[in-house]
Amino acid sequence: MKRAVTILLILILIGAGACGVTSYVEYKNTLEKMTVPEDQNNQEEGETGLIENQKLVDPFAILLFGISEREAFNDPGHSDTIMLALVDPEPAKVHLISIPRDAYVDIPGFGKDRINTAYPRGGPALLMETLENWLDLDIYAYASINFQGFIDLVDLVGGIEVYVPREMHYDDPVDGTSIHLGKGEKLLDGKDALGFVRFRKSNDGIHDSDYQRMERQQLALSLLADKLSSIRTLTKISRIMEILSANVKTSLKADELDALIKSFLSFKIDNLQTTSIQGGGHLINEAWYEIVTEEEKGRIQNIIQDFMEGSN
Which range of residues forms the domain containing residue 72? Predict the structure, then answer.
């Protein structure tokens, strides 16, 4: 998707709007609430942070993921959407790398498994460590959003209009999933929009791939970001900030998040690039996994290296 927008950019757009419309105190309080406590922060001891003279100066990598946490079904949460964002604050540039949730990787302490099983086993720290080891890079921080936050934001903007490319019907009473969407142009509310971005399995056995789902996720986030960025009423801005406070968590410090938002106030969509890690489906012990070749890993590592070195 040429206009793919990440969770990170949604936060930036919202923050930018909040700066000009709502009170600065409320804005700062929201940043504080989104930031995890020091004892839950995954940054290494002695790390000095990203800010120099009140500005972000160096490019960095941040892990972005959506959590499918549902208390009613005792679901501890799975990282259903996993993205790696390479960020250069000056000039404001982002390269987004989408990661298949079924990628077959080594999870420290647990052996080989799907990458999305790292989060329920060890939270953001284990997911970050898994990615760092797999792609041989340093990830500075993470930002996560509970899917309830996505539902609430879509409902707040009056839904998003999408083309549903096929009949989407899937029910799983074990985890409460119930997706029923007809083919064609649709105005989706929050619940149906979540079904649109999460759909992969089908009751008829004709399933979509991880890559088709990643394209739908990027499309929905783009449409949501466009609507959120146009909101200027105080009541809705305040409601957006409530939703973020309740559903977004990041290991960026509040001053780093503030500096990031300010760096991207003049962000241009042309400075966003996207890549998806490509794999191949394989059956292992009667379960399907995405196997990513060493050649494909090398391609992604070169993208990371070129971005980091080219931004210095």
Answer: 7-153+229-310
